[in-house]
Fold this protein.
Amino acid sequence: DADVTQTPRNRITKTGKRIMLECSQTKGHDRMYWYRQDPGLGLQLIYYSFDVKDINKGEISDGYSVSRQAQAKFSLSLESAIPNQTALYFCATSDGVTGTDTQYFGPGTRLTVL
Amino acid sequence: LAKTTQPISMDSYEGQEVNITCSHNNIATNDYITWYQQFPSQGPRFIIQGYKTKVTNEVASLFIPADRKSSTLSLPRVSLSDTAVYYCLARWAGNMLTFGGGTRLMVKP
């Protein structure tokens, strides 16, 4: 969805490096999410934010941190990358409408940690 | 976290109807059931959403029984381009939505 953008789209880094993945949205949604997907597997929720002052851990938050700089921006950081963090990372937004709360995903960032 | 349960994979042929069933035994009272489609190396894309009975759009139909403990996504007359992973999402009271492993649909010519 072009309304949700992620940068970079691809990144190769080395073990121990600090990495930041950025997500921006123009949908005007309050809710934003970061997911991780390993090859052949489903999506796992890392962190989510229901508004600028609200940050929550998901299923697999260890080794990750996030920053919600504004309603439209949500960044994911790997403070010291390790090889098993090699994965496809997706950002998503949702409108928070009670009951429905449909999520809209960005194109993904492919991260390789050597 | 509680998750939905759906078959790991399914095979079909072009032109056939495909039905994928998902179980969500303890869905939150006010929440809808949502299905997403994901192609390789792309983010999941919303397909259809419903609360109960039947919902139909230009892509699929969704059947939800009265007890809402399961739902069935129906794809009419599939084509090769429908080969993808399909995820069923539902929320349990007090929990976040979670994606399970999804159902990998392979459509053959």
Summary: Residues 50 and 66 of chain A are 13 Å apart (CA to CA). The radius of gyration of chain A is 13 Å. Chain A touches chain B at residues 1, 4, 35, 41-45, 48, 56, 58-59, 88, 90, 92, 98-108, 110 (CB under 8 Å). Chain A is about 0% helix and 55% strand.
